[in-house]
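Course assignment 3, question 2. Fill in each field.
Student: A.L.
Task: Predict the tertiary structure for the chain below.
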Amino acid sequence: MEIEAKKFSNKEINVTYDPCICKLSGICAKELSHVFSDNIIPWINLNQDATDTIIQQIKKCPSGALQYIKI
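Answer field:
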């Protein structure tokens, strides 16, 4: 069974999360928990911080499961 990547957007970026490659390190939720939550659905809320801050956090993802594209 293949699991598709999930997409989240705000007015500036599209963020994708691929659960198939995620290593569950939790860096995103530990360092930017108001954007990346492990207990609220949807678990990514891009309206909770500045886009540049979110991009910097995505760049720290060790597995590459989180990616972004500027709109």
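Instructor remarks: Strands lie at 6-9, 13-17, 66-70. The two ends are 31 Å apart (CA to CA).
Grade: pending
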